[in-house]
Amino acid sequence: MQKVHVKLIGGPPEITAAERQLILSPEEAEDQIRVTHLAGYEHFFYAADEGLDRSGVPLYRYEWSYRTEIAE
Fold first, then answer.
1. What confidence tens digit (pLDDT) does each residue in 40-67 have?
2. How far apart are CA 4 and CA 69, in angstroms?
3. CA angle, 43 then 1 then 25, to 5°
4. Most exposed residue of 1, 10, 27, 57, measured as fewest CB within 10 angstroms of its CB?
């Protein structure tokens, strides 16, 4: 199964560099990616196809858009 590399840009500075690099299936790399952070979700939207990484895997850039709180 092919994978894609995803780079998350923007959002809370507490999200580490390692947490900003994801490896997903093409099906998981939708228009929007939701990341759990503290007591909420950070929403990142697809911004660009950045070509291929060194190993030939597609690299996509997603940019932060907004935050939602987790309902209790």
1. 999 999 999 999 988 899 999 999 999 9
2. 28
3. 0
4. 1
